[in-house]
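Weekly modeling sync, notes
Attendees: S.R. (lead), two postdocs, one rotation student

Agenda item 3: backlog of single-chain predictions. S.R. asked that every request posted to the team notebook include the full sequence so nobody has to chase files. The rotation student volunteered to paste the first one in as an example of the format we agreed on. Action items at the bottom.

Example entry:
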Amino acid sequence: MTNESSRKTDTLIIGFGLTTIPLIRELERTGSDYTVISSGPNIWEQLEAAGRLDFDLVSSYMSSVYSFELARTKNTESRFPTAREFHEFIKRYKADHRQKVVEDWVTEVENREAGSVVHTRSGAIYEANNIVIGTAFRRKIHHSILNYDFEHARGRTVVITTMGDSANMFVSKLLGGDNRIILVSNGFFCLDKLINHHGVAFALDDVEMHNVGNISGYLYKMVLPQGQIMASSNPRTSKPFLGSNLYMRYPFAIRDLDLTPALNMGRGSPFNPNLPNGLRITKYWPIDTYKESFEDTLEESIRSGYLLNDIAYLIDRKIVELWPRQEVFIDRENRVLRWRDQVVQFDDIIESDQEAPNLPPITIERPGQPSCRYEYYYRDCFMGLMPRDLPNTYFIGYARAMTGGVNNVSEMQCIFTHKMITDAAFRKEITRNLDERIAAYNGTQYPSKVRSGADNLVFYGQYNEIVARLMGIESKFSQCRSLEDVGIHFFFPNTIGKYRQRGPYAVEGMEEVIRSIHRSHRGFSISSTQVLNFVLMLVTAIVAIVQMFRADWIPLSITVLLLLVAFFGPALPLINTNSNRINHITNPLMVLGLGATLWLGHPLVPLASLGLGFVVVYICRKLAISRVWFNDLQFKSRPEFDQFYARYIETFRKVHHPSADDD
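Predicted structure, as returned to the notebook:
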């Protein structure tokens, strides 16, 4: 690093936007030397210029904004910002720091043993001890969203060969134009993004309760994902209770477990506390909660960008056709789609692709070795952040949250990177065995050794907790001083704000905001009562089996077999999955049953308690009193939802196709 005309800086940040602002704030706070280089509009600015900020986010407000923004607004409600609202939030913080940004384009980064040399389009050269890259992703579907003529898309046949949040948004914009929508897919995983539970709204990213896994990986996995995994992997067993599930009714929607290694979480070790990386999840507005949320303000809500995109309902009502990709032939040149005896002439096709980091060219320069081009692979970096082959380099924003907002992960990455840059002892501790750290992380997070383009998709709460432990700012049970503290530790979602209540990275007022959110969500009882329900069923089953053995009803061999079935069989997770909204009935029943067992000591008592609980759940499912958290079509079969959908389409046309009657 001897170029006399180069500009020297301790930290060079490439990319100025959503993911790097928290780092800039921390560097400002500690008076650290830094430079930011950025040029060109980001995707949000492109959407604004194209007039396409007409949708809402798939992650809730609490997981989409910065912790310090949450402390400023003191928002306690689980809601979803519109794209316009979110973009205004980003612009406000960008305006605070824009004067420090150098408008230029990085053409190459030369990584050396003791730092990096960065070349730009203007000819400027920078020497930096630390390089931070936060230049977002590039995706083919972004071009379609920016340029497709939705306003005049009427009576067209549109083929979509991908399924995800962007594709589902595309579907939502096509609904009002009498278009034929054909989804060609090899299966997908989708979840309701909002759940109403006894009058309180819970976003999907509210219910992950990752710290329960610190008590028991088995308990965590039995309660959280098992219902949906069983619906797709054990349909015959699941059908009596999950017959109204999307995957029961439409097997083409089931994604083969072997195609998505992350789905092996239903077949892997039940004791690993981690849910694996790599699961693509489409988050949608279920029509029942959409109706409840926006029925009285429908036109205003649609204008704001709240669009109905219940893919489960749309498939169930044949509004969207689902064709299996492995059986479909696509003639792109002649725009013809064939499946079995169906031949369709289509007008437009929206293609799938993998999102890829939009990195500048990076070369590795080492003494006595030829230069080589660096290629980014998530698994070759510690938590996608610290690359094995590029010392003092950090990639921020390339770990994506499957259920929560990218801010949850990127802000945690920012404060971790700040600590790496400013704390020499911490940096030495982390980097001295980086290869081992990468191997250990990958070993716990991936059930398969096969690399995937989805490796960067993480459960945000799990990711945040791992990074927080490295920094010593994790949530600790030993710090709890009240039952409320215990509830926050285990059931409050692991958003970035949870780790910025106290300590060196504390945000003023955050502790009060966290408590307010916890109270407004009734202690996140939607999760805690579900865990309690499973524990009570399991304990009751164990007591019944042990009592039968003690009464000489069954031999030891059968006792062991029944205990294994109770622990690892499908019955208890299935009943638990279907007990939502009625736990206030079933949980007291089992508590009474256990009390009666202690008093009477007869095996029939816990057996009767279990049987009564199962019957109550089964009847409530048939009467549509209970509701499965995700992909439940039973509620949506009511005529009121078809009537609401017709009203929604009429209102959507009024907003987005006002000239349709004149055509």
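Discussion: group reviewed the output briefly. The mean pLDDT is 90.
Action items: rotation student to repeat for the remaining queue; S.R. to check formatting next week.
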